[in-house]
């Protein structure tokens, strides 16, 4: 767990947050504002807290850290930390290049990590590892920015090539697209990986909280038999689906892990998925339509909708479904009889299309509106629904309103897609789930209407995905609990 702060007290406070977890600690001393009496102050901290495995790091600005001093000053700080009780010291390749490998001997008796960081890209790595491995260090650490998912494959190949060699190797992907490398590092043979002390406390791009790494992803329990799943999209690094699906896998004792797979190019993901032999995955924006061209089979409803959000890989075949459609029906059918109901659908994008086809199949009378009129007109024609110009809702009488637009989602929670005072309805269903209580739902409740949160939709579609992948009944209550807990700690996008 990487800890950084301006004072020794702040380091202690962060360490105490997860002192019950069996983790090691990295003290990022380069974030300190005052190095006076550093050795004695660290000794006092160690006397108060039993921290058996602490790495001392004082990364210079040249290597991407906060320390403005030269190499000699950096070594002095690390020596003080080692004398105080830090059993490990991390020295960057830049410092060795500037002062020579002899500076490493001055940090005895600490064990040493020779590190390389690249915050811009993932270059060819073999020569970098060879250079670091020649140093008198126990661990080589290579952390590089993952521009896309394929950079994780470079790190995986390097880890596999040196898994049984000395010095041991730790690889890390920096940034949202590098999350797979962070989560799978131990599975790839690395002795450890890095985490943060909590939400909003990361000291490196893409760092996840230690509790999330251990409980949601169980990074220390993944093995070669662990089946891999994930969610692919352009903004999934903070998706709630990993918390939900991993909770389901754990509850049903399925040896599987579900990962966030963020990329700006679908072909990048396809290469990654085949290389890691994914067993299935969720699909979100902007790939629900483009993924269809790469599937071996598609459920008839998903084909009609023109969007796929679920892929299972069965006997080498990539098969697609749309679980959003069934989820909309499942949620709404608990509140009203769909056949013959009059429903206003706001939004004709991916979620709106799924809702439109599913509800039309149930015999509902649909009125479809979208800020992009042409989009709504095309969808209305496809499902034999009525097109309604955006904001032409005065004196409208409907049984339900569905918001399938992002209006009202954080960070723009003040938004509301429709003024409920302008129409008559009895059910309001907002597919937005962050925040749980949108302005639209609050307005609906104040008017005594039935209000349905997007959380229910999220869990319903996720449960169907789980059942497609595993053939097991989904633990829906537990999945909802996991999402609520994740919502309380994260800021999804």
List the helices and strands and how they pair.
Blueprint: E1 2-4, H1 8-17, E2 25-28, H2 38-48, E3 54-57, H3 71-84, E4 88-92, H4 93-99, H5 102-105, E5 111-118, H6 126-133, E6 139-145, H7 150-161, E7 168-174, H8 179-184, H9 210-216, E8 227-233, H10 241-251, E9 256-262, H11 266-275, E10 280-283, E11 297-298, H12 300-305, E12 310-314, E13 317-321, H13 323-333, E14 342-346, H14 350-361, E15 365-369, H15 373-382, E16 386-387, E17 396-397, E18 400-403, E19 423-424, E20 427-430, H16 439-446, E21 450-452, H17 454-470, H18 476-487
Parallel strand pairs: 1-2, 2-3, 3-4, 4-5, 5-6, 6-7, 8-9, 8-10, 11-13, 14-15, 14-18, 15-16, 17-19, 18-20, 20-21
Antiparallel strand pairs: 10-12, 12-13
Give structural notes.
α10 (241-251) links the parallel β8 (227-233) and β9. By secondary structure, the chain is α/β, with parallel strands linked by helices. It contains 18 helices and 21 strands. The chain is 36% helix and 19% strand. It is elongated and about 80 Å long. The protein folds into 3 domains: 2-223, Alpha-Beta Barrel (TIM Barrel); 228-321 and 460-483, 3-Layer(aba) Sandwich (Rossmann fold), CATH 3.40.50.10860; 336-452, 3-Layer(aba) Sandwich (Rossmann fold), CATH 3.40.50. α2 (38-48) packs parallel to α3, α10 crosses α17 and α13 (323-333) crosses α14 (350-361). The strands form 4 sheets. It has a 7-stranded parallel β-sheet. A 6-stranded mixed β-sheet has the order 9-8-10-12-13-11. A 6-stranded parallel β-sheet has the order 16-15-14-18-20-21, with helices on both faces. It has helices at residues 8-17, 38-48, 71-84, 93-99, 102-105, 126-133, 150-161, 179-184, 210-216, 241-251, 266-275, 300-305, 323-333, 350-361, 373-382, 439-446, 454-470, 476-487, and strands at 2-4, 25-28, 54-57, 88-92, 111-118, 139-145, 168-174, 227-233, 256-262, 280-283, 297-298, 310-314, 317-321, 342-346, 365-369, 386-387, 396-397, 400-403, 423-424, 427-430, 450-452.
């Amino acid at each position: 767990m990487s800890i950084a702060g301006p004072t020794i007290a702040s380091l202690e406070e962060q360490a105490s947050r997860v002192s019950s977890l069996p983790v090691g600690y990295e003290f990022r001393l380069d974030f300190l504002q005052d190095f006076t009496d550093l050795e004695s102050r660290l000794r006092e901290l160690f006397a108060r807290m039993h921290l058996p495995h602490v790495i001392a790091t004082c990364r210079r600005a040249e290597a991407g850290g906060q320390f403005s001093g030269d190499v000699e000053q950096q070594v002095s700080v690390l020596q003080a930390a080692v004398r105080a009780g830090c059993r490990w010291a991390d020295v960057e390749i830049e410092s060795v290049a500037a002062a020579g490998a002899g500076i490493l001997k001055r940090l005895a008796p600490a064990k040493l990590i020779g590190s390389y960081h690249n915050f811009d890209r993932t270059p060819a790595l073999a020569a970098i590892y060879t250079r670091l491995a020649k140093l008198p260090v126990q661990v080589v650490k290579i952390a590089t920015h993952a521009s896309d998912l394929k950079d994780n494959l470079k790190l995986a190949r390097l880890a596999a090539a040196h898994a049984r060699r000395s010095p041991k190797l730790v690889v890390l992907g920096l940034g949202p697209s590098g999350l797979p490398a962070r989560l799978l590092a131990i599975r790839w043979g690395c002795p450890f990986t890095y985490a943060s002390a909590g939400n909003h406390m990361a000291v490196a791009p893409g760092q996840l909280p230690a509790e999330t790494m251990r409980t949601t992803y169980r990074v220390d329990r993944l093995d070669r038999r662990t089946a891999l799943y994930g969610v692919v999209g352009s903004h999934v690094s903070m998706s709630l689906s990993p918390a939900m699906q991993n909770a389901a896998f754990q509850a049903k004792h399925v040896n599987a892990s579900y990962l966030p797979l963020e990329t700006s190019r679908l072909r990048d993901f396809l290469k990654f998925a085949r290389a890691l032999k994914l067993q299935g995955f969720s699909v979100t924006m902007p790939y629900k339509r483009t993924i269809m061209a790469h599937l071996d089979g598609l459920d008839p409803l998903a084909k009609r909708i023109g969007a796929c959000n679920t892929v299972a890989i069965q006997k080498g075949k990539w098969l697609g479904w749309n679980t959003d459609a069934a989820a909309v029906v499942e949620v709404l059918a608990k509140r009203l009889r769909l056949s013959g109901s009059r429903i206003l659908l706001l939004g004709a994008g991916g979620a709106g299309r799924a809702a439109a086809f599913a509800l039309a199949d149930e015999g509902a009378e649909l009125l479809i509106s979208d800020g992009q009129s042409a989009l709504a007109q095309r969808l209305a024609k496809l499902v034999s629904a009525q097109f309604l110009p955006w904001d032409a809702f005065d004196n409208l009488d409907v049984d339900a309103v569905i918001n399938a637009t992002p209006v009202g989602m954080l960070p723009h929670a003040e938004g509301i897609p429709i003024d409920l005072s302008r129409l008559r309805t009895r059910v309001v269903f907002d597919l937005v789930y962050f925040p749980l209580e949108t302005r639209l739902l609050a307005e609906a409740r104040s008017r005594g209407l039935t209000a349905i949160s997007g959380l229910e939709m999220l869990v319903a579609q996720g449960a169907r995905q789980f059942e497609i992948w595993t053939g097991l009944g989904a633990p829906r209550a537990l999945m909802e609990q996991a999402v609520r807990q994740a919502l309380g700690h994260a800021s999804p996008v």
